[in-house]
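Researcher: Quick one. two chains, 276 residues in total.
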Amino acid sequence: MTFALDPRLADDTLVVGDLPLSRVLLMNDSRFPWLILVPRRGGLSELHDLSRHERAALIEEAARASEKLKRLTGAAKVNIGALGNMVSQLHVHVVARFEADAAWPGPVWGAGKAAPYSAEAAKAQVRALAAALGLAGA
Amino acid sequence: MTFALDPRLADDTLVVGDLPLSRVLLMNDSRFPWLILVPRRGGLSELHDLSRHERAALIEEAARASEKLKRLTGAAKVNIGALGNMVSQLHVHVVARFEADAAWPGPVWGAGKAAPYSAEAAKAQVRALAAALGLAGA
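Model:
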């Protein structure tokens, strides 16, 4: 199956760029520095739908995103999650968390309403994240 | 650093057994079939604190737990998460989700109050999970 980004993920995010396996998205919610990694392969829903080789690649990309995001933002903790109750396409959240953020210490999923970035702020955030991840940017 | 299970994780769970890298725990909340994998190494908090080799092992163990838990329970979706806002010791949740469960489609973390297993039910659940994961059991 060929890869096509789920329309709901596309609506909720901005494209940061592509790592070798995953498309990197920025959640359009300025309350949390929040990346989403989507392996660019069709027909994936569960972690166990990937091959062993792809899983190793995915966790490396998630760890890289986690480390860079933490360094860039000075976060207290990074939250990583693959839920998929609403969007079944396999995707991995990598979220920088702060003790003063809008959901701490709870999870970000389902917490209140997203606060979209301004066009300017979105552009700056995408640029900063693409640079941190060594991507050309979107 | 040597491995010691965080006391809060120990209080909230039952031991299922050990995979090569991780201790496998059952969350003592009968609302959700819920495993927790804790890499048995000291001083870990973030995914990027592990070596590449350990990360590959961890994601294989998470995928195995995910697949076996889904098959055993007939879940609609497996949720995987490493949060650590409350317990900083690196641990990975693997949770079987159902469209009729107490938190669907939201996350299980922070959702309502745990409903502990009876002693009998806990024993049966630990035994079934240990068998599914090919562990000797606790």
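The first helix of chain B runs from residue 7 to 12.
Researcher: Thanks, that's what I needed.
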